[in-house]
Structures are given as structure tokens and as C-alpha cells.
Specification:
alpha/beta, 2-enoyl-CoA Hydratase, Chain A, domain 1, 4-stranded mixed beta sheet, 18 helices, HIBYL-CoA-H
């Protein structure tokens, strides 16, 4: 039986598993395993690996409760199967996953079905924690749009392969929400203050930039992905170093170009290092005024378009994530999420989704409308423990033991 150890975040810890490359398996032929929900999650099996395929291409593979529950069920069964050495995930169409199905959540909230909303987030965050503590190597092929929840089901895993088609972002502040799905954990661990920049502006990174800053572990041209999938499918191993060698052999070496935000780290750090959103905005205004630089002006405009309350909540969330573990971040994000969807502090989430995705008038009416009117008490409420009558997020104890 393959030796089982925790390998999530192996890229950073270099944890090793036993080499089992020469093991023979009876299930060596390629198979397709569909699921009871028919279509939204497909599975390909080949030898000792399994590939989960997110299959809602018309919705950019936006994640819903059924998809996440199905993924969780498959992943737990694969983790317990000694004949499966590693697991992969990809998306169909032009996206890996654009995030959670926020339109469905918007309609559920308007119908007053809060329990279904909470079930979605409980299911999502629990699966993301499973990915981050998985006992077997995990390879996510981030080909196409990878945002919000799409990042949440991939970045906590062992390997993330970005391509020339990859578009990454955490755009939640522009829909009156906060970067969640483990974003407060992985963004807070990026170099300098890049995490704050991405959280507060919702700006995009391409595949090259993801690899350079550490959000992705490898890079490949889209045209080479079929070859990489083929070579991975031939592996009979549970050793992450063997998988990494394959990814490196068929990957591509790249460097960010001169227009990349990563070439502006010095000014980015200078502006986004401040303790408050107001100070960050002031710093960006000064930089834009002094330099007339297009990047500074664009960044300033992105800050001014976002929900003022979301900006302040997001900044605090990222800063707290610096000192918290993955499970602590997910627990906190769940509590913050319940505050956002209940709308008792502000209705910005529903208003943001309405303006950006439903009606598409791109003219949200934020409440409060300015940073000055966002009180400290409003922000503090997002970070309070849940009431005794509200069940907290429960993460699997089995995965916690993987850290021991």
C-alpha cells in the first residue's frame, strides 16, 4: 500500500512521499466515470490517477453546491483507495472555474432561502480544506479563467499548472463581497503587498505572472497541455517529485514582460503597505498625480469603483490571514460570508451582483457610498464569532490529523 502523508502545499514544504513508480495496477485501462448529477462533474480514470473535470462550460464552470458535494465525495473515496496515487482537476471549455455561482446565490438570497446559501459555502470551504490537506499529490490544470472559488479549489493543492490562456483574479470587492475561498490565506503569503493589491483592486494576473509570484507552480503553453495530460496519465506513482519532474520536463520557462504589475513591485509596495484603505488611496492618488503613469491611474480607478465597505473588510481579512493557518482563514471567511449574505450590515453583495452580473448596468449603489461613511463598528461586525444559535463551519478532523 502506498505510504500516505499530507502533501498539500508541497511546493512550499517539499514533503516527500514514497516512490512507487513500478507498481502494477489491475485498473490500467482508461475509463470514464460519470456521476449521478450527469454532466457537471466528469471523471477520467487512467491507471493510478484520476482526473476530475468541471463541466459547466456555458457558465464558465461556476461552482454550485451539487458540483462541490460531488467533488468532495469523489476526492474522499480516491484518498482512501490504495490503487490511486494522485489526483488531477481541469475545466471544460475556456475556463478552469470562474468562481462560485453568484447568480444562483443572488436569487436564493432574494427568495429568503438562506439555508441553501449557507450550505453552498459550507460545502465549498470544506472541500477547499480537503484540497489543502489532501493525502495524495494534486495537480490542477488552470487553463482559462480561474477566479474566486476556482482558485479556492486549486491553489491549496500540490501543483498548479498555468498556461498562456490563464486569467486569475479575486474580484469580490467589485460585487460587494470579500476575497474568500481561502484567498485571505494564499494572498497574504504573496511577496510584498501584492496580496493586498490583488484583493483591493480585483486586477487580473496572467499565467506567467502566476508562476512568477508563486500562485502557480508550473507553466505550459495551452497547446502542450494534451501532451502533459498524456504523460501524467502514464505515471504509476504517489511521489510528488516524480510528478514535478514530468511537469518541469514538459513545461515552459517564462518571465513577466515589462508591462507586468510584477515589474512595479516597488511602487506597489510603497502604496499598499499602509494600515488603512484611506491611506492606500491617498498614496495611489499622489503616485498618479506625480507620475501620470497609466498603471497608477488605472489602479486608483479600480479602488474607487469597489464597494467601500468591502475594501475595508478585505484589507483586514488579508492582514489577519498573514498570521493564520488555512483552516483558521476558512473559518473566519465563513463567518464573514454569513455577515455579507444576511445583509444586515449592508446589502452590497446583492447590489454588486445585480449591477455587475444580473442587470449589467455597472452602476452599483454602494451602502455606505464612501470610505468615510464606513464605520469601524461595521467592519468589526464581520469578524465577530457567530451567535450560539448559528452553527459554525465544521472542517473534517481527519484532515487536521494530516498535519501531525
Amino acid at each position: 500500500m502506498m505510504q500516505r502523508k499530507r502533501v498539500g502545499w508541497w511546493f512550499f514544504t517539499k514533503a516527500k512521499l514514497s516512490l512507487n513508480t513500478y507498481r502494477n495496477f489491475s485498473s490500467s485501462q482508461h475509463v470514464i466515470l460519470d456521476n449521478p448529477n450527469h454532466s457537471q462533474v466528469l471523471v477520467e480514470g487512467n491507471g493510478c490517477s484520476r482526473m476530475a473535470i468541471l463541466n459547466r462550460p456555458s457558465a464558465l464552470n461556476a461552482l454550485n453546491t451539487n458540483m462541490l458535494a460531488t467533488l468532495h465525495k469523489f476526492y474522499r473515496s480516491w484518498e482512501d483507495n490504495p490503487d490511486i496515487g494522485f489526483v488531477m482537476m481541469k475545466g471544460s471549455g475556456r475556463a478552469f472555474a470562474a468562481g462560485g455561482d453568484i447568480v444562483a446565490l443572488y436569487h436564493l438570497i432574494n427568495k429568503g432561502n438562506m439555508e441553501a446559501c449557507k450550505e453552498f459555502f459550507r460545502t465549498a470551504y470544506s472541500f477547499m480544506y480537503l484540497i489543502g490537506t489532501y493525502l495524495k499529490p494534486h495537480v490542477a490544470l488552470l487553463n482559462g479563467i480561474t477566479m474566486g472559488g476556482g482558485a479556492g479549489v486549486s491553489i491549496p493543492g500540490t501543483f498548479r499548472v498555468a498556461t498562456d490562456k490563464t486569467i486569475f483574479a479575486t474580484p469580490e470587492v467589485h460585487i460587494g463581497f470579500h476575497p474568500d475561498a481561502a484567498a485571505s490565506f494564499y494572498l497574504s503569503h504573496l511577496p510584498g503587498h501584492l496580496g493586498e493589491y490583488l484583493a483591493l483592486t480585483g486586477e487580473k494576473l496572467n499565467g506567467v505572472e502566476m508562476v512568477t509570484c508563486g500562485l502557480a507552480t508550473h507553466y505550459s503553453l495551452n497547446a502542450r497541455l494534451p501532451l502533459i495530460e498524456e504523460q501524467l496519465g502514464k505515471l504509476v506513482t504517489d511521489d510528488p517529485s516524480v510528478i514535478e519532474a514530468t511537469l518541469e520536463h514538459y513545461g515552459d520557462l517564462v518571465h513577466p514582460d515589462s508591462s507586468s504589475v510584477l515589474q512595479r513591485i516597488e511602487i506597489l509596495d510603497k502604496c499598499f503597505c499602509h494600515d488603512s484603505v484611506e491611506e492606500i488611496v491617498d498614496a495611489m492618488e499622489n503616485a498618479a498625480s506625480e507620475t501620470k503613469d497609466a498603471w497608477c491611474i488605472s489602479t486608483l480607478n479600480r479602488l474607487k469603483e469597489a464597494s467601500p465597505l468591502s475594501l475595508k473588510v478585505a484589507l483586514r481579512s488579508i492582514r489577519e490571514g498573514t498570521f493564520q493557518t488555512l483552516d483558521q482563514c476558512l473559518l473566519r471567511e465563513y463567518r464573514m460570508t454569513l455577515q455579507a449574505i444576511h445583509g444586515q450590515i449592508s446589502g452590497d453583495f446583492c447590489e454588486g451582483v445585480r449591477a455587475r452580473v444580473v442587470d449589467k448596468d455597472f452602476a452599483p449603489k454602494w451602502d455606505p457610498p464612501t470610505l468615510e461613511k464606513v464605520s469601524q463598528d461595521m467592519v468589526d461586525q464581520y469578524f465577530l464569532p457567530l451567535s450560539e444559535s448559528e452553527p459554525d463551519l465544521e472542517l473534517p478532523t481527519k484532515s487536521r490529523e494530516a498535519f501531525l
